[in-house]
Amino acid sequence: MRYVKWTLISLTVLIVGAFLHYTLPQHDIVRIVNTYQERQDLNDWTRIFWATPDDQSTGLINRDVQFIQAVKPNGKPMVYRNEDTGWNWPPYFKFDTANLQTKAEDLKSTAENPKWVVVTHYGWRIVFLSVFPNAIDIEPVEGPDVTIIPWFNIFFFVFLGILFLVLRRMWLQFRERMIDPVVEDVSDAWDRVDERADRVRGNARGLWARFRNWLDTWRGRPRI
Amino acid sequence: MIGFIRLAVLGVAGMTVMYFLLSIYSRSVERERLEKEWDERHPGGGDAEARDAYIERGMQEYERSLRHKLIWLVYVLPTLAVLLLIYLTNRT
Asked: Transmembrane stretches, by residue range (chain A) (predicted)?
């Protein structure tokens, strides 16, 4: 039973953690080298990794997607997709894909004369499934070593913590005011029934009553 | 447009649930406070009817208080947060 419990707990933590890791914004410092647009097939299960930029895109089996190619300071390549999220999940409310693509185009640079930028994005790069993170914002930075404070994530987790505490407090208040009095009433009534039964049984105490009496001493009740 | 309607409907539904939970909680806390206040002033318990009347009056006062009205922020703050997010994501 303990293994089942811990398996369930670790599975839950893993799924929630992965979900948050996929959905919350992250920052990469990269150098943009190129942008391109490519038609993508959307008719298999990896559809879940692509955005639904507008209403008709839910019915399309393929559509053009814009991409931003970048190189990290350690020389490794990174490719972002650039899609509107619109009013859909995840709630970034991104409508400025065309502007972002223009910005990326403007900030292209070469290895000899690098222009470093910070790309805010969500999502994962999974090479085997052709999954790309979605770029949300691009801002030029001084160099590849600048420190970025993830303000949004700090606010988000503080808010999540407060929400959790508020809900917990609500539940405790509800239990104290609504459930405990009822339980107390019931257990009081039950105790009275028990006592009367004991009295009735008083004279004809058999082995069972004596055994129960002995059991009760474990719960701090005196032996009658 | 469908996306916007879906967001609005789900958002209003979620905020309404939160609004009711918070107002029930806040009312319960206020009632508990009034009960404790009365019990403190009347160590013997006092008149049961007067106690009910006192609590009832306190609750009516609470309904008119600022704290009760502040619960409406449950609708205001998330809406402002969404507007802020839209601005932050799409500014050039």
From this structure: 6-24, 148-167
